[in-house]
């Protein structure tokens, strides 16, 4: 399906330079860039949708162990004694 588009001057210049480097017409270069962009977008959305949900990857919060709690209390008590 033929379509007419307007490109910013700098983008059109980049397309022409790429086409010249690859020895393609500007139309063919633009077509390849468009096809590659569509493929990349589809691949990106597929890889994004295959990721596990954010909530499934959150770590579960554990209660501190009794020994950790006792150590913290002891440490605070020692600090209080040192300051006195």
Describe the structure.
The chain has 84 residues and is mainly alpha-helical. The chain has a domain of 52 residues. Helix content is 71%, strand content 0%. Helix 1 crosses helix 2. The radius of gyration is 31 Å and the shape is rod-shaped. The model has no long low-confidence stretch (mean pLDDT 77).
Q: Which radius of gyration do the C-alpha atoms yield?
A: 31 Å
Give the amount of beta strand, in percent.
Answer: under 5%
Beta strand count: 0
Structural class: mainly alpha
Low-confidence stretches: none
- The topology string of helices and strands comes to HHHH
Sheet having the most strands? none
Mean pLDDT: 77
Task: Give the end-to-end Cα distance, rounded to a whole number of Å.
Answer: 86 Å
Which range best describes the helical content: under 10%, 10-25%, 25-40%, 40-55%, 55-70% or over 70%?
A: over 70%
Global morphology: rod-shaped
Tally of DSSP helical segments: 4
Question: Characteristics of this structure?
Answer:
71% helix; mainly alpha; 84 residues
Layout of SSEs?
Layout: H1 9-22, H2 26-49, H3 54-57, H4 66-83
Helix pairs in contact: 1-2
Briefly characterize the structure.
This protein has 84 residues and is mostly helical. Helix content is 71%, strand content 0%.
């Amino acid at each position: 399906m033929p379509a007419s588009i307007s490109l910013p001057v700098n983008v059109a210049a980049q397309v022409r330079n790429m086409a010249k480097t690859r020895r393609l017409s500007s139309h063919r270069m633009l077509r390849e860039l468009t096809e590659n962009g569509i493929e990349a977008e589809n691949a990106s959305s597929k890889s994004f949708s295959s990721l596990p949900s954010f909530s499934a990857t959150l770590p579960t919060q554990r209660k501190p162990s009794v020994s950790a709690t006792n150590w913290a209390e002891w440490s605070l008590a020692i600090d209080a004694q040192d300051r006195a």
